[in-house]
Amino acid sequence: MTNPIAIEFVEPQLDTLGAEEERVVVVFAGSDGKLDIAARKVNSLTRKALSRLVESDRFEGMKSGEVAEIAYPFGMETESVLVVKLERNASATAARKAGGAIARSLGCKGALVLGASLKNVADVAYGMALRTYAYEDQKTGEKTAPANVRVAVKDVNAASEAFAPMAGVADGVFFTRDLVNAPANILTTTTFAEKLQELSALGVEVEVLEEDKLHELGMRTLLAVGQGSASPSKVVVMKWNGGGDEAPFALVGKGVVFDTGGISLKPAAGMEDMTMDMGGAGVVSGVMKAIATRGAKANVVGLVGLVENMPGSNATRPGDVVASMKGDTVEIINTDAEGRLVLADVMWYAQERFQPTAMINLATLTGAIIIALGSENAGVFSNNDELAGDFLAAAKVEDEGAWRMPLGDGYDALLKSNIADMKNVGGREGGSITAAQFLQRFVKPETPWIHLDIAGVASKKADGPLHPKGATGWGVRALDRLIRDRFEA
Ligand code: BES
Ligand code: MN
Ligand code: ZN
Which of 75, 220, 224, 407 has its CA 20 to 30 A from that of 6? Predict the structure, then answer.
């Protein structure tokens, strides 16, 4: 379990500056090069090292949020002064990115951040918290323990109050990243369900549906995916009741703890990446943790289908026909198109049991969405323009890439089967769209719904402004924001 760094907001104490306990002092300067009172103090201690920097071509060429280091400054006991180019009234997004850049240069050194002149100083702290993540559960030896960070602000109460919900969301993001980064022999369907049960300590009601119950409910398309594995399939239902007694908002996640492809076996190269195929379930779990930690005034249910797609002797064969919980039969042409089989049953169950006011499902569903959108945007498929618009707006505020994709009868027609009600693949063309069409067959027309295909964004090969390489936690912030805007505004 990876915990975000501890951040403490303090009053600025400029008279003792220069003899800090932290190894690094961070100051800010806007593009006009004007120094605030804290930076002026550092400037005088260092015999105008800062003035020389902000007047240089180097500083002029720096982008917003970029960091320059003055190492072993004369006149101070700190190892370095980081000078961050950031306007005083910089947006929350810019402030977070700057925080991410600070965290990246800091590594695990502690810092005193002199942010009293910034409008969105809590967001700088948030960016630092999000970027300082390392998955080290599988490493022996010394773990990097990032030292604490103190942030000097004008108003300690205001900054702490602004930061408290952000810290809750950061907890959720870290939970998602830990789950997504975990190898499949460690995060099995069973240990995943156990981890989710721990959320009950935060007031989330957690219920685990075991295989016998899933049989009873008729979730045969979900069970068809897991039956080739020694790990039992499970559905976990998480309920957060922070609102009144209105029907809940539903989140549904694909939790394939490992996707070999099944009998339609994947090629060896890169198969190890399929440990992240529970990314949708990971985000749902992270959102539940986030809203519980910050005490959201909303009713939200999170459901995840936990299965392992393995080619065991009992595995589903290509050509098998299976009935879904809804009743429709599916000809399983390709056992590697398994995510939609899992989601079909869990989505149907979510609607039957909760009559949610809206439903959003997340899944690392198709390689095709990566061909379409790369790793910059998740695919957004929806039957409801208003809900889709609200989500896209929330994603924009949180700077999480999301792009609307089409649906249509012509795509749906590609799922026609010769012997069953539908087949589980629609061919290579528009692969992410036919996958979404498959899901839509399990959405009641009256349910406002979004499908998020996060195959390209759940885990990345390169680091970004607010995450190291590996699991990103994409979507936790946007969904938390959506819930806030919808129910708590
Ligand atoms: N889990 C994969 C999709 C995926 C690919 C996620 C790459 C993350 C990175 C999914 O189960 C899958 O195998 N999809 C197939 C569907 C095809 C058989 C119709 C795909 O995309 O190739
Ligand atoms: Mn697959
Ligand atoms: Zn998969």
Answer: 75
Among 332, 340, 366, say which to mutate for ligand 1: greatest number of ligand atoms within 8 Å of CB: 366
Amino acid code (one letter) for 380 = V
- Residues belonging to the binding site for Mn(2+) are 254, 259, 277, 336, 338
Q: Which residue's entry shows tokens 């076996």?
A: 265
Domain boundary among 154, 181, 205: 154
> What distance in Å separates the CA atoms of residue 84 and residue 34, rounded to the nearest whole number?
12
Same domain, 11 and 132: yes
What's the gap in Å between 370 CA and the centre of ligand 3?
Answer: 13
- Under DSSP, the state recorded for 361 is E
2, part of any domain: no
CATH number at residue 461: 3.40.630.10
Tell me what the mean pLDDT of segment 103-123 comes to: 95
Q: Is residue 162 part of a domain?
A: no
- Would 224 be classed as within a structural domain? yes
How far is ligand 2, taken at its centre, from the CA of residue 184, in Å? 15
Active site residues: 266, 340
Model confidence band, residue 184 (pLDDT cutoffs 50, 70, 90):
very high
- Phi, psi (degrees; rounded to nearest 5) at 104: -65, -45
Comparing CA positions, the residue from 329, 315, 323 lying closest to residue 419 is 329
What pLDDT does 147 receive? 85
Same domain for 73 and 221? no
Is residue 368 within 6 Å of ligand 1 at its C-beta?
yes
Inform me whether the pLDDT recorded for 177 exceeds 90: yes
Residue 173 CB partners (closer than 8 Å, separation 6+): 130, 286, 290, 473, 476, 477
Domains contained in the chain, number = 2
Which run of H or E residues covers position 92? helix 92-106
- 262 and 411 housed in the same domain: yes
| Domain at 98, CATH number | 3.40.220.10
Nearest-CA residue for atom 22 of ligand 1: 367
Residues 239, 199, single domain; the answer is yes
180 and 93 part of one domain: no
Q: Check pocket membership of 334 for ligand 1, CB cut-off 6 A.
A: yes
pLDDT at 392 over 80: yes
Single residue among 99, 126, 154 that ends a domain in this structure: 154
Q: Are residues 260 and 380 in the same domain?
A: yes
Give me the mean pLDDT over the 138-159 stretch.
92
User: 3-class SS at 192?
Assistant: helix
pLDDT at 393 over 80: yes
**224 close to ligand 1 (CB < 6 Angstrom):** no
Taking only the tens place, the pLDDT of each residue in 281-302 is 999 999 999 999 999 999 999 9
Domain extent for 229 = 170-487
CB 86 within 8 A of CB 62: no
Compute, in angstroms, the gap from residue 420 CA to the centroid of ligand 2: 21
136 and 182 housed in the same domain: no
What 3-state class would DSSP assign to 36?
Answer: coil
Q: How confident is the model at residue 146, as a pLDDT?
A: 83
**Ligand 1: nearest atom to the Cα of 339:** 11
Please tell me if the CB atom of residue 372 comes closer than 6 angstroms to any atom of ligand 1. no
